[in-house]
Amino acid sequence: MGLDRDSIVDPSRFEPLVDAYGPALHAFLVRRAPDAADDLLAEVWLAAFQARRTFDPGRGSVRGWLFGVARNVLFAHRRRDRARAPTTLATDDDGWEAVDARLDAAALAPAMRAALADLPDIERDLLLLIAWEQLTPAEAAQAVGVPAATARTRLYRARTRMRAHLAMTTEGSAP
Amino acid sequence: MTDEIRHDLESLPGWGELVAAGRVAPPGVAILERSRSAVRRAADTTQPPATVPARRTRRGALRFGLATAAAAAVAVAASLMVESPAGPTAAVAAATERLANVAASVPGDTVGPGQFRYRLEQVSQLMQREPAPTVTRSESWTAADGSVWTRSTDPGGEVRRGRYPATPLPAPLADLPREPRALLRYLEPIVDDTDMAEEYSTEHALFRALHDLLRADEAPPDLRAALIRAVGLLPHVGVEEASADALGRPGIGLVWHQDDGTLARQEAFVIDPATARVLEYRSTATKVPVVDHTVYPLEYRTTLVETSIVEELPADMRDLPVG
Fold this sequence. Notes:
Chain A contains nine helices and no strands. Chain A is an all-alpha fold and 175 residues long. The relative contact order of chain A is 0.11. Residues 86-92 of chain A have low confidence and may be disordered. Chain B has 323 residues and is an alpha+beta fold. Chain B is built from eight helices and nine strands. Chain B has helices at 3-10, 15-21, 29-44, 68-76, 90-105, 180-192, 202-215, 221-233; strands spanning 116-127, 134-143, 148-153, 159-164, 237-244, 250-259, 264-271, 278-287, 297-310. In chain B, strand 7 (264-271) and strand 8 form a beta hairpin.
């Protein structure tokens, strides 16, 4: 979708963005917060509209920026959830549980699940934005809010860690 | 970056299964409609700044011949102005008069046919939650007709090239008034007719326009002097006598203050007291909302590293399409 800064700043031209990017943002939320995704989607769009003037085409694409907004909304949702949870039940929910449940339901190989679980949060986030949201690495960097060079380094590390983990697991399970 | 990393990731055993595990059903019509309604309601309650009537947009009328870095500079800061009756202070008037006298005495250089004004700038952006600024090397070549070729190199080494057509002023620079108040009167309807007027007060848009005209280095000495004096006539402008740019060069900062209650920002351009050239434009957040979903830019700087007139474009810039 060919958009420039004016498209995103002009209120009358903002609504078509919902049609263009709404399904992808909804999928992002379903994958990470399945029970709340429908409600969070409207929250994402409202936050994006209110923050539209902070979009800077010099820093990346509309798509990367919108996923950054969605990620912030998701984090805020988790913080609210934690605040509401009784102390005894409160967990340090970094979002992995929902993702892992999805991987489990999809019968993903245990070695891959374990390799993903062992990644630092930021590396896993970047990697899943590429695998699931089909973002480019530069867009994933924008969404996570790190410089592109940092994202590249972290993705190389993630790839190396996962390859090592998967190789070790394969060797360990060999007869 | 990118294709190489993606290919690396795709070669991981189980990558295809991981991708497949992420497949979800598309949202129902009602779910998307809720989002559209939320945006529509928010848009309905959005008002333009009280002092700026909505007008026809003619984009970039003043942003002639500037590299994309300047456009990015415009993009980083935006909020409603809190109008106050503050007028120019004696300190501002004294500083701008001093700089104007320098500007009038320094001979200008003009880009001739077939030549280009080369500018190398350092563009630095610091966002909330980032430990350090992202620094980009930004180069531009501006032809005599205002056409611009740009090449930026990000910290990871990724290079982006672009070529943009000229968007000239409605009158030649030579025809612009040299009397500062007449210059402001001349520029006012022009900035009100650009996209800047939809977001900023007329005075703020004039501050930016005066900066753009000074920064472009194409104005003759007497016009540069008038542009600087005109800045001194605007309300809300302050002066930093002992300012410095990102490279540590001393300068005099002409500062625009804006505050909408929850978000406050200073925009400034730092002028070399010896040449009256713009060394740096910077936008600094001085107050951001405590609880928000937005990641705010804390500081943005475009710093001139070097400039010269060159006879030709580099080989890798010659065959770029306009766009």
